[in-house]
Amino acid sequence: MTVSSHSHTRGAGTGAGVGTRAARDGAAVLSVAGHLTDRDRELVRLVARHRVLTTDQLAALAFGNITTARHRLAVVVRLGLLRRFRPHLQTGSAPWHYVLGPIGAALLGQEDRAEKRWLPMVRADRQLALERSQRLGHMTGASWFFVALARHGGGELLKWDGEGEASDYLYSRSRELGPRPDGLGIWAQDGTDIAFLLEYDTGTEHLPQLVGKLTGYAEQAGTNTALTMPLLFCFPTARREQSARKALAATAASLDLQIATAALDPRVTCPGLRPGVDALARRPRADAAHRPGRRTPRPLAHRTRTRRARPARARPRRNRVG
After folding, report:
1. Which helix (H) or strand (E) holds 188?
2. How confident is the model at residue 310 (pLDDT cuts 50, 70, 90)?
3. Are the beta carbons of 40 and 123 closer than 8 angstroms?
4. pLDDT grade, residue 133 (50/70/90)?
5. 97-100 and 53-54 beta bridge pairing
6. How far is CA 141 from CA 26, 136, 153, 184, in A?
7. pLDDT mean over 273-292
8. Full 3-state SS string of 195-237
9. Is the pLDDT reported for residue 191 higher than 70?
10. CB atoms within 10 A of CB 308
11. pLDDT at 139
């Protein structure tokens, strides 16, 4: 670490020498602080937690229209809070994908009193690997489910954890790692909180491979009660959902699990940033299933179960998603 020759001099409000990284980051944050809104700070943290989000997803979560979102996100990028890239497509063009920027990492580090916590996320090699990753579409697809759910006015999305955070929660007290769901959520509606795990399917996985995941969940559920909460499979099309439901229902492992399925196309679910899907509602509104772009997750056919699983009842603070 480089230390200034005038080590007794302190950065304004940082408590660090002017030559240290902390002092430089503190000065950079101070230089942009006057341009930031509370929404900007929330967006930066949202992107940091979920690694990558698209323009449309951020617009659906925090803006009234896509034009306003584009203009404001351009400002946030220019200030260094976020970075953005467009993955290469064979045809057409992809939307902007946003990742954490260096000033954003410094800002969150100051807010969390952990200066180095977010620094690995802004390494150029990691962000370049993410841009070229074959799982990029899978990650943004899983995020679309939660974005659509957050936009729905019939309840409240209390919790949205990505793959990493979900795994940390599921296996925090277990020495043996098991299945890694794509997310963990808690949906509140009609006075009931429903905790669930998400498995997002892009439609490219062979059904035997998809069905094989149930075995891992069933085996772990016997010793890890966190894995007894409902398991929601989300598919990109209704046809894929129908074929997958039949395959899932035919497995012995499904007898020991609470399983639901849903189909989601964000182009239909959130056109013009309209509210999203009815998801995991035990008593959905009667007209929900008849609205274009809305599909209520359906449980697998009722059968005699060898063991009844109970959903987690932990009730977190009622904060908005983020």
Report:
1. strand 183-189
2. very low
3. no
4. very high
5. antiparallel
6. 35, 8, 21, 14
7. 34
8. EEEEEECCCCCCHHHHHHHHHHHHHHHCCCHHHHCCEEEEECC
9. yes
10. 8
11. 96
Query: Count of H helices and E strands in the chain?
Result: 11, 9
What does pTM read for this prediction? 0.76
Q: 3-class SS at 59?
A: helix
Residues 6+ apart with CB under 8 A from 76: 40, 43, 44, 82
Q: What CA–CA distance (Å, rounded) separates 243 from 279?
A: 20
Question: Is residue 123 over pLDDT 80?
Answer: yes
Provide the 3-class DSSP secondary structure of residue 184.
Answer: strand
Are 167 and 178 in contact, with CB atoms under 8 Å apart? no
Of 166, 132, 153, 114, give the one whose Cα is nearest residue 52: 132
The tens digit of pLDDT for each residue in 224-241 reads: 888 889 999 999 999 999
Collect all residues with Cβ–Cβ distance below 8 Å to 18 and sequence separation of at least 6: 4, 6, 9, 10, 11
Distances in Å between the alpha carbon of 62 and those of 136, 146, 273, 320? 22, 14, 10, 11
Calculate Rg over the CA atoms of the chain: 22
Residue 107 and residue 116 in contact, taking contact as beta carbons nearer than 8 Å: no
Q: How many residues does the chain have?
A: 322
Instruction: List, in order, residues 6 or more apart from 260 with CB less than 8 Å away.
Output: 196, 230, 231, 232, 233, 280, 297, 298, 299, 300
What value, to the nearest 5°, has the Cα angle with vertex 48 and ends 42 and 53?
85
Mean pLDDT of 53-72: 95
What average pLDDT does the segment 182-193 reach? 94
SS3 262: strand
Task: Give me the pLDDT at residue 47, please.
Answer: 97
